[in-house]
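User: What would this chain look like folded?
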Amino acid sequence: HSFPTRRSSDLAVNTRGALVEYYDDMMEREIAVTSVFSSGSTYFEDNKLVCNEGNWNTTVKNYWPPEDHYLNFYARQPFTDGNISNETYQSFDYRLPQDNSGQHDLMYAVTMNKRKVDLVVELNFKHALAAVTFNAKTASNGLVVIVSGIDFCNVIRNGSFSSPSESTTQP
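Assistant: Here's the prediction, encoded as structure tokens.
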């Protein structure tokens, strides 16, 4: 048995940030997924998960281990990011780039204790970073306001991320 796929209409990706707001946004991205036995040994590492015609599959075919083996799945999006270092399947360091074009919506998902009879691995993504947006509105349609700049102070630009020890779920 290969790892199962689900139609895009069957999956829900829960997001709260401004950059990846809808499931369709996820379909354009590559996801890194690692699977680890419940004992802690790695089953596969950093397989690329891509959406093709509404179906999610890893680019490397994987087979379920025997039914008495439980697997934990750790996923991260984007698949590659030069701002991630010291990466293991459960943690990594992240440095926010100065250039806005290099800033990605960093997301993660964890699914624990799956085995062959489960057939489906549901990944419920969460945002690892906060997104800030600014909106201005006037009470009068004829009034034009020009905002020449916005400054943020004391923004933390780097840190360490550790995956939760339980499955990420939808709220």
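Residues 1-19 have pLDDT under 50 and may be disordered. If you want, I can go into more detail on any region.
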